[in-house]
Amino acid sequence: MASYNLFLLPGDGIGPEVMKEVEAIIAWFNAEGIARFEVDRGLVGGSAYDAHGQAISEADMAKAMASDAVLFGAVGGPKWDKVPYDVRPEAGLLRLRKDLGLFANLRPAICYPALADASSLKREVVEGLDILIVRELTGGVYFGEPKTITDLGNGQKRGIDTQVYETYEIERIARVAFDLAKTRRNKVSSAEKRNVMKTGVLWNEIVTRIHAAEYPGVQLEHVLADNCAMQLVRWPKQYDVIVTDNLFGDVLSDVAAMLTGSLGMLPSASLGAPDAKTGRRKSLYEPVHGSAPDIAGTGAANPIAMIASFGMALRYSLGLGDWADKLDQAIAAVLAQGIRTKDIAGSQPANATTTQMGAAILGELKKLA
Ligand code: NAD
Ligand code: IPM
Ligand code: MN
After folding, report:
1. 3-state DSSP helix/strand/coil percent for the chain, to nearest 5?
2. Which of 22, 111, 118, 235 has the lowest CB atom count within 10 Å?
3. Relative to the alpha carbon of 78, which ligand is closest?
4. Alpha helices in 241-303 (DSSP H)
């Protein structure tokens, strides 16, 4: 049986609460002998800042680098609003993405049948929804230089963020999107703003070239990112794979989350390039949501996004795709039974805490063993 090193970074707020439910599932896999997972834990975000003044320590970065997969909870919160910009909690996550080279962020938005009425949109708009946002994760305005605030000396300041993309960055994320589309409904929608941004012009040109040269059999359409946001709430089922830059991908994936019923439902996988020798990719798995300071400590957090992120790790990094499918089935079964944390309970009262939801999913998974 293959052995894998998992590095857990629970983080802040609800991060550790939802991670606990994944830890229970990992422990069960080990106890049943389905897999051998070596688990180590580290600090990231505000909890790391409190411990040693950095958003992630060098030692924990080294462990993340050496792991087969990083499982990440969430970071941030009002407690750290005033800490210096370079060591704010979110800097830990951004460093992990950049230093591990995790350029491809997959954010699937699936509306489970039992949740078709949990979205703020009408049932017919979201029922059967299955779209995948492929977000470029190591470039764009998140990392471009200069990134500064300058005092102009006349009572005015100037803030600058810089959107930068180079050919190779667009080529590789386009290939990820086209390859995934071939395993799905064979359609890619590329979202940019070529009408306003030079990077949008370049993005459009390169996606068009990669499509013509390497993926002529995949359907490609170009959509302006603002229109894409509108289309996502108008008729999201027109989409299969959406490929987009770092910032548009951040915003569009929060929009897509609500189509599934709650931000607490959306998982993600962040993948690096395959290693030339082993073919293995560096990887990090995290829910799309944040630390939810408004509900932290109340037991109201929905652990499904975190659990489904672990499911993506089983599929993409741990060679257990069949168990990833079973975990999805277990989630669907629990939702079909009407078990609901507050965020997906609609007008009904919630009938499950974070721990009860996690336990119910593990219970269903056990039945599939
Ligand atoms: P958020 O995602 O933390 O919360 C937005 C809303 O969704 C809140 O009302 C919250 O209660 C709800 N929500 C989120 N996850 C939920 C879950 N699992 N179950 C039930 N409800 C859930 O976004 P925010 O409030 O804008 O940000 C809070 C902090 O989190 C900020 O510091 C932000 O930078 C950080 N953040 C971190 C990540 C990350 O670690 N990947 C992602 C987004 C935001
Ligand atoms: C996300 C988050 C992060 C982002 C923050 C916490 C750095 O919002 O993963 O969606 O903006 O990428
Ligand atoms: Mn986000």
Report:
1. 45, 20, 35
2. 235
3. 1
4. 246-259
Asked if the ipTM is above 0.95, the reply is: yes
Cβ distance 368 to 326 under 8 Å? yes
State residue 2's pLDDT score: 79
In contact, 129 and 111? CB cutoff 8 Å: yes
254 labelled catalytic: yes
Q: Is the CB of 218 under 6 A from ligand 1?
A: no
Q: Using one digit for the tens of pLDDT, what is the confidence trace for 186-206?
A: 999 999 999 999 999 999 999
Mean pLDDT of the chain: 97
Beta-bridged to residue 192, according to DSSP, are: 224
Q: What domains does the chain contain, in order, with CATH numbers?
A: 1-103+272-369 (3.40.718.10), 106-265 (3.40.718.10)
Tokens of 179: 């390859």
Unique residue bearing structure tokens 């704010």: 88
Helix (H/G/I), strand (E/B), else coil: 264: helix
- Proportion of the chain above pLDDT 70, given as a percent: 100
User: What's the pLDDT tens digit per position in 88-141?
Assistant: 999 999 999 999 999 999 999 999 999 999 888 999 999 999 999 999 999 999
Give me ligand 2 centre to Cα 254, in Å. Answer: 10
**Residue 102 near residue 270, CB atoms below 8 Å:** yes
92, 56 contact by CB (below 8 A): yes
31 Cα to the center of ligand 2, angstroms: 34
Give the separation between CA 257 and CA 144, rounded to whole angstroms.
27
* Residue 12 region by backbone torsions, left for phi larger than 0, else alpha for psi between -120 and 50, else beta: beta
**295 CB under 6 A from ligand 1?**
yes
Is the shortest distance between the CB of 325 and ligand 1 below 6 Å? no
Give pTM, 2 decimals: 0.97
- From residue 89, alpha-carbon distances to 36, 93, 102, 136 in Å are 31, 8, 19, 21
| CA count, 13 A, side-chain hemisphere, 103 | 18
